[in-house]
Specification:
Layout lengths: L6 H6 L7 E4 L3 E5 L7 E7 L14 H17 L7 E4 L15 E5 L9
Length: 116
């Protein structure tokens, strides 16, 4: 299921172009248009989910798949040696601006400060 008004659904269905670095039947990964570090890739499920709070037990395998895709991409993009982050913002106060579940794979440079 997709949302016809969602930009990430449109990217996943190739209605809007993006620099896709990985895709399979469950997810699409593409370069962020405003990268914060040298490697900044968004990993989005093809299934439209508004965010982390929309996940249910039925999505357990999807989230595990996303984590494994992130690990594979980190290796392919050369950021495993020094480290990388996998981040999902949930809600406007957390900085979520597109309300389609997505994970940011970030690496390739030291990241300022601790997260907690």
């Amino acid at each position: 299921m997709s949302d016809p008004n969602c930009i990430f659904c449109k990217i996943a269905s190739k209605q809007i172009p993006a620099f896709i670095v990985y895709e399979d039947e469950q997810v699409v990964a593409f370069k962020d248009i405003s990268p914060q570090v040298p490697v900044h890739v968004l990993i989005v499920p093809r299934l439209h989910l508004a965010g982390l709070d929309a996940l249910t037990e039925a999505h357990r395998e999807l989230v595990g798949h996303i984590a494994l895709v992130a690990q594979q991409l980190a290796k392919e993009l050369g950021v495993t040696t020094r480290g990388y982050r996998l981040v999902a913002n949930c809600g406007p106060d957390a900085g979520q601006t597109v309300f389609h579940l997505h994970f940011h794979l970030l690496g390739g440079a030291p990241m300022a400060g601790k997260m907690v």
